[in-house]
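Same chain as my last thread, 99 residues:
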Amino acid sequence: MPSVIEKILEAFNSYGPLSPGDVAQKLDIPRYKVLATIQCLNEFGLLEALYSRGSYKIYQTTIIGKKVLEKIKEKEPLKDLFESIVLGDINDSNLKTPA
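reply #2:
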């Protein structure tokens, strides 16, 4: 069973730019849940605001969001994906010598 994150990313991938209200309507998920999830996905860089006027926003998937959706579809746990990204950055920064 797909997670809410997967469903929302898939909606943006399939339909293109959407407002949170559009997503809630298309997926039949409560608006508050969609808003909270989109806000988190935006903070993580998986979605970006394409248009904003007051509280009305239209979002689209970022390149990172599309890659994450691919990994989710491959059944790779998000924890492993984010862990490899974070630990990779930490290890890369440890290898750099100060100038």
